[in-house]
Amino acid sequence: MHKRFYTIGMAGHIDHGKTALTKALTEVDTDRLKEEKERNISIEPGFAPLKLQNHDWNVSIIDVPGHEKFIRQMIAGVAGIDLVIIVIAGDEGIMPQTREHMDILSLLGVEEAILVVTKADLIDEEMEELVEEDIRSYVKGKSYERAELLFVDSLSGRGIYELEQLIGEKLSVQPTRDASGAFRMPVDQSFTIKGQGTIVRGTIFEGSLRIEDRVLFLPQYQQARIRQIEVHHTPVIQAFAGQRAAVNITGLGKEDVKRGDVMVKSDAFITTQTLDVRITLVDHLLSPIKQRAPVNVYIGTAQAAGKIVFFDRNEVTESSEEIFCQLRLNEPVVAKRSDRFILRRPTPVETIGGGVVIEAGAEKHRFGVNTVEMLKEKSKTTPEERLIHLLHQTKWMDEQGLWKDTAMDPKQLKDMLQTNIAEGRIIVLSNGYMLKEEVDRLLEDIAGSLKEYHDQNPLRAGKNKAELIAQLPLNKPIGKRLMDYWLKKGELKAFGQYFALPSFAPYFPKEWADHFHALEKQWRQDGLEVKTWNSYGVELGVPDSWMQELKLFYLQQNLAWELDGKHLVHIQPVRESFEQLYHETEEAFSLKEAKEVFQVSRKYLVPLLENGDEAGVTIRIENGRKWLKQPSKILSNKQEAD
């Protein structure tokens, strides 16, 4: 099953117990800075791994600052989360930052939430009822009206188990992020570690990242290379969408990368200072928003000052409807269609709303209703966009499923598919369709997995096909067809059930090559009457683990026969003996005739002949064996592709 990665946000008012609750769930204290310890408040987002019972998921908790002064850090922390825990202290109830955090989370499109009342041991049952009533009253009619509410106490452990269970239930129905898309990781921290160089941290929004990848930091367009990747202090070869990652880069210093920069691997993303957007305002504005009013825009982990430009009004006091307008920024940001953002007013300081990007890199427009109508139309996805988006999400779908989910006319869909197939953007696979770019990205992942496997297992013919299919975000039959597609295209090669990179051939690792050659020479000299396999390793100082790998190498390459689990015979003396026996006997031969040619005891002779049966050289009959084929035509050390 494909690995699942999730990020949970821990939000709420200062001193309401977010950090303590994170520690109760993960046993990690996310207040790591000296100033945070001294002031007993969170200044930067803290991160901790959460291990859920009965779930093999990779889950991160982000504990964001609760103080109003650190709202930018809070927004940077919750960018890209899948579930939020809204923390409310039982002895204080809903406070100003609780409200603002809820507004921000809702505007960022974070739909799944759990309301958690902390410090529950400080209040009695009667107060619990009042607190719950107050919270339910506040969220009524808002985004988190239906969110579950739990009472917990981080010190005594009350309610922690129930919270863990609920988190598991919520995440189990959450879709995973697109790990095969174009890679994007907004940076929320950059620092230097002596002896290692520059480290950047962030939550991977889309795609995946591998060691040695070449990356680009936007908006400054500076290149770097990935030296190391860690997920919660554990080194990994590859990190995926939904994971928190600390990335050691070469080519740039700490001063070259800052919070708000975006690490990418392709030209799928642009930098811009002009965004066409649709926005939603908060319920409570301190004062009207005037035409071209200064605003601070928070997108990803970036903050940019700019102004808001309306096209159908000169002032907004309140509005429950979406407003189509434009943001003109003083500095470039990285954005694409459908990205979400937050708007705050610099003075008086407040969150005024948020929205969705309709178009990044937009042109300036004239004031008037026509512009608003144009933006409304632009915000609607085209039929082709719906098709491409659906295939991005599902990876593979048949025509009936596409017709149903895109709500397109069947003929229009068929024509659109044929056009995209002819132009090479879509491929046909097993009576369904895949985006060529998705196929290429999946191949990149499989190739990376094989490269890692080959490096770790140089003696093996390749990785088991079933294991590779299990890595694909596709059902098993479609995954099998995709593997066969790559095989036919020459992108992969196969040896029976084992798949490998086209350029790979099993080899003796440099540090053991001399030992293995010496072992093979002695082993082959012993002919058919060999010693136990492990004894060769003992004599030449080869560890048992490598002896097992070496045994697998000879068997996979058809260079040996295994007799009884302890004895391995090289194929050359086997082939020579069978070929001699073939020429010295008629259509059949007896055990005695075989013994005279093979010159081995019954201990070796019987399993050798049984192996001959299994290989299709002979078949057992009442008084001996009958030849099926000439041994030289079957007993070859050349491995054939499946």
UniProtKB/TrEMBL annotation:
Gene3D superfamilies: 1.10.10.2770, P-loop containing nucleotide triphosphate hydrolases, Translation factors, Winged helix-like DNA-binding domain superfamily/Winged helix DNA-binding domain. Pfam families: Beta-barrel_SelB, GTP_EFTU, GTP_EFTU_D2, WHD_2nd_SelB, WHD_3rd_SelB. Its main location: cytoplasm. Keywords: Cytoplasm, Elongation factor, GTP-binding, Nucleotide-binding, Protein biosynthesis. The keyword Lipid metabolism does not apply. PANTHER family: ELONGATION FACTOR TU, MITOCHONDRIAL (PTHR43721:SF22), ELONGATION FACTOR TU-RELATED (PTHR43721). This is Selenocysteine-specific elongation factor. It comes from Thalassobacillus devorans.
